[in-house]
Amino acid sequence: MANVTQSRPLSPHLQIYKPIPTMVMSIVHRITGGALYFGTLLVAWWLIAAATGQAYFDLVNWIMGTIIGRIILLGYTWALLHHLIGGLRHFVWDLGHGFDPAVSTRMAKLTLVASICLTALVWIIGIVIRLG
């Protein structure tokens, strides 16, 4: 519904606002939160497989070891770390800091960079440990 006097929407939405880093990271934070529900089901599946028996546990490990399984695990790792760092960003705001637009934009960009770097670090450590 348009405002008759100014011909603009009464309730702006994503098609009206110009995306800025803080807005995009807020949306991604919500998406990663949702993705963590799916990832937690994977963790539960793995734990149930471990409790069920060696054959089923080996099957689940094989599935998670395929290319698709590893991509899913990589995505879960990134979602977990990104959501964690985004939560820390929100915690800083809860403490009353980081509201300056330049600071909040820097924090949003840092959230993305840090989550990617930490995901790479976790996977590198995992590969090094696995290769022994």
From TrEMBL:
It is found in: Membrane. Its cofactor is heme. GO terms for cellular component: membrane. It holds the Pfam family Sdh_cyt. GO terms for molecular function: electron transfer activity; metal ion binding. InterPro entries: SQR/QFR_C/D, Succ_DH_cyt_bsu_CS, Succ_DH_cytb556, SuccDH_FuR_B_TM-su. It is a multi-pass membrane protein. The chain crosses the membrane at residues 35-56, 62-81, 110-129. The heme is bound between the two transmembrane subunits. Its main location: membrane. Signal peptide: none annotated. GO terms for biological process: tricarboxylic acid cycle. Heme binds at H83. Keywords: Heme, Iron, Membrane, Metal-binding, Transmembrane, Transmembrane helix. Part of an enzyme complex containing four subunits: a flavoprotein, an iron-sulfur protein, plus two membrane-anchoring proteins, SdhC and SdhD. The complex can form homotrimers. Belongs to the cytochrome b560 family. Membrane-anchoring subunit of succinate dehydrogenase (SDH). This is Succinate dehydrogenase cytochrome b556 subunit. It comes from Rhizobium lusitanum.
